Amino acid sequence: MFGIGMKERDAAEVTVRNTDLASFTALIDYLLSDKFDLGEAVGGRAQRALDLRELAQMYQVPRLELLCAQALQESVAPASAVPLLEAAHTTGDGRLLAQCRRFVADHAAEVRASGGVEQLRDFGVAKGLLGDALDQVAELKGAVAARDAELGKVRAEVAERA
């Protein structure tokens, strides 16, 4: 973009679409100094990593893209799981999607208490989470039925011995 023959090189002002100043500044800092910095705000780090990963993809900076993906995986928490799940669904990030789905399943009460359910905007993601919940209910019912059958066998053995 700033190389020889590009109009941006000599422009007084450059417009970069689909980003904000802080994310673009983080990209430039990374390119110039190899410094990966998402900022200090814990809640904002996930969004900055999403924005920066998009820039890394757009400008073909694969190492930065990998660093952002790693930061996203490390930032999955009750308050961030649902927004990250939706972002992973939108961007086609299967690894982050699976991690967020598992996190929501394993920490449902914490996600719900953090307001994660109210943050849900994507109907496709909502259907996926509902499907996950129904699968867990079926799995639990199967486990209870197996336990009941085992308990019935034990009771029958005890009754025979008595």
Automatic annotation (TrEMBL):
The record's annotation in InterPro entries points to:
BTB/POZ_dom, SKP1/BTB/POZ_sf
Q: Which Pfam families match?
A: BTB
State the coiled-coil residue ranges: none
Query: Domain BTB: where?
Result: 5-75
Q: Which SUPFAM superfamilies does the record associate with it?
A: POZ domain
Q: What is this protein called?
A: BTB domain-containing protein
Q: Which organism is it from?
A: Emiliania huxleyi (strain CCMP1516)
From which lineage does this chain's organism come? Eukaryota, Haptista, Haptophyta, Prymnesiophyceae, Isochrysidales
